[in-house]
UniProtKB/TrEMBL annotation:
NCBIfam families: CoxB. It catalyses: 4 Fe(II)-[cytochrome c] + O2 + 8 H(+)(in) = 4 Fe(III)-[cytochrome c] + 2 H2O + 4 H(+)(out). The gene is coxB. It comes from Roseateles amylovorans. Subunits I and II form the functional core of the enzyme complex. Electrons originating in cytochrome c are transferred via heme a and Cu(A) to the binuclear center formed by heme a3 and Cu(B). Residues 321-336 have a biased composition (Basic and acidic residues). Belongs to the cytochrome c oxidase subunit 2 family. Residues 319-367 are annotated as: Disordered. This is Cytochrome aa3 subunit 2.
Amino acid sequence: MSDGGMLVPAGPQARILAEQLSTAMIVCTIAFLIAMACLAAALWWRGRRAVADGWWLWGGGIVLPVLVFGGLLLHSERQAAQLDAPAPPDALQVSVTGHLWWWSMRYADADEGPGFTTANELRVPVGRPVRLTLTSDDVIHSFWVPALGGKMDLVPGRLNRLTFTADRPGVFRGPCAEYCGTQHAGMVLHVVAMPPEAFARWRAAQAAARPPPTTPTGLRGSHLFSERGCAACHAVRGRLDGPRESLGPDLTHVAGRLWLGAGTLRNDTPHAALRRWIADVHQVKPGARMPGYGHLPADEVDALARYLIGDLALQGLADQEADRQPDRQPDRHADPSADAAAPPSAGFKRGTVAAVPVPSLTPSPIR
């Protein structure tokens, strides 16, 4: 589902890196051809007048490498200096924290709306610079979205920064680029670049707190969320606020994300995907720190999923559904009648939302 990669850049910073890579490949190819030409010349010259050792030592061993690779180094340094340019004042400010094994994103308060927290999916407006503040809550992770820019480590106790701009819409995959444990391969971030108008609607919807459930199943799921211990690690703004964001992802609008479990399970049909995640989390993502709830009755799993889905119409998703594909994986908790009643993932109706102020979201202090 990812659009592009390092060789198909989707932003100016990534384009600089792609150009550096192309230049390095061309220079190395030329150097290889020169070396092969020298070898061929040496074979052809064998038995004739000997070439002085100084030519090979100084010419081939020092002067040529210094000219070739020194020039390449200077060119790369000049290009890389553009990547360190300070972000403009109107850049979108987002704090990203790495956890075992998921990503937390906190959008700072801005003129266009209050800040909020989400997880594993970074949405940005096309054409607007994005300034990331990066840190880790446990071990060293590394942020790397090849189509959008360079790699930057997330180090516990340290705040690193990275600026990038997406110049076309798309969904761009970013794996954790630093081995961080059992589920290192299952720690994937997706960057969704959206047209500015669609991003503004999405932001307003995400900043809004969850309204109370209105159906009996949703109300039961709300109670189960606390009784079964889900609220000990996860927050649902407006319903179960609390200092839990370092333990588990914020689930306020989880049904609107493209993936569950940090790129592990496609969220094409939120009801089925959430039920599968709740009941079979360790089959979907072995090593995940969330305990499995496969022992719960199917109706309780269903109620929890219904509660987490909430009202999809309030999640501002109507502009980015093109990439959703059906998830054909089996679900032993699946209920065909419930699926039929579940809201479809495509063609959501956008509702009216009210932005609810939340506390200022400044970058995490060094821990």
